[in-house]
Amino acid sequence: MQNYLEKYVGRIYCNDDVGTAFLVSNKELLTAYHTVENVEENTTVIFVELDEISSEPLEVRLKDFDESLDIAILELIQPLDIEYFLKLSNQVIRNNSTWSTFGFPGGKLNAGAKLDGIVARSNVNIERSNYELDLEYNQSNECIEGLSGAPLMVSDTTIGVITKELDGTLGAISVCKIATLLDKNYITYESQEESLGDESGFELNTPVVDKLTNKITSLDSGYLFLKGHPGSGKTTIVESVGYAKSDIVVLGKYFLLEKGKENLLSLRMNHLKFLEWLEDRVVADLYNAIPQKSERDINQWITTILDLLQKLSEKYAAKQTKCVIFVDGIDELFKSNKIEEFFSALPVTLPKNIIFVIVGQNESSLPPKHIIQDDKKIILVTPLPVNTCLRLINKELPELAFELRNKMGKCSEYHPLYLRYLIEYVRTNMPVDGEQEINKWLDRLPQVSGEIEVYYESLWQDIVKKDELLYLISLITRFRECISHKSLIETVPVKWHS
Question: Structure pTM?
Fold first, then answer.
């Protein structure tokens, strides 16, 4: 990664001042403000040298700055024709984290220098000190002057900017602190909240996750299919799964149908959006950079994806690590006749150590070229273990009597979605200590008796036979917000009020 870092870091010249700057887009760089504060409007020219990108110095202008944070944004007079640049992240920086950088201190102005060390303090009072992070470094004989403006890296991610030399240490500012300035200038960064994923709070189906993990570990490369009926917990598994072990890395999870973002389904089914997402993830992993957006036809996309996956394969094969990408909800593609187009740029044979986990109801919905016929590559999502269900009920309804917890689990047949419905109904409609009432209610519940989709279909067949019930359901589905019971009654024909 270090070689790619050096490519996007350059020397900055403003009058007699020399410093470091780095690319965060194809036309913008970040640096420490004091390296360019002596610029005189209409008379001073600022240059940046990016040796691996241009043989000539490039002219830039001071686009924006925050003097109190010692941060400046520079803009190239002529944007660069480049695909990648450094990716920023606003992740939290903790004391004793290991950091690294590359820049151009005075002693190595031409060749540049690498520094590394630990974060001594991460909560320095910035109003008094003009810096936020105190960094210890290992290169004790290095001349530091000129390093201001270099990217601060933690775990191969750019999380800040080095801004000043202290007494034996370095001062820096985090992306989190300069986020307002970045937002104002439309410079993107990865939000820590985004990277954490969706916390559903639902219990993980450990036996299924273990089967999935074993399949990933044993497979050299290729496609796996995580199969389950509606509501069986497929998406919950994908949302929750993560690997602390070093031989499996989850590169990304692409959800076609996200909770709370159902209106984005048509956009996420667009194969070009998926390919852009995939390119973003791979480039970020390989180069800690963001690719420049460009118009490409499908043949160009195929070439791009093949090349990136091959490079990704080389990286993880060398580490003896499996790189996994999840694609959840392909049934929506099948229903919309977009499944073949969506998979069109993905190779039938994946390079070594690259694994895609496709998630859906039936593997036969995959395009013919990508169909999975080997049963060993299909992982069936089975009901939650009894103990997992009981633990979940206990967590959500701690005051519920033990006998009723057992009964609720049995009534749900340990089906995740049905169990969630039962828990929510009791929580919102019944007193938890009303044991007799809850017991009678559980006795009246219909039995799913097998696959829940069959049960749902049986309910629907009863509904369509009753005009008033069908009318009411059709009416409710058109509401865009909650309404009171009284308002609902007023919308129903008077003949059905009784």
Answer: 0.59
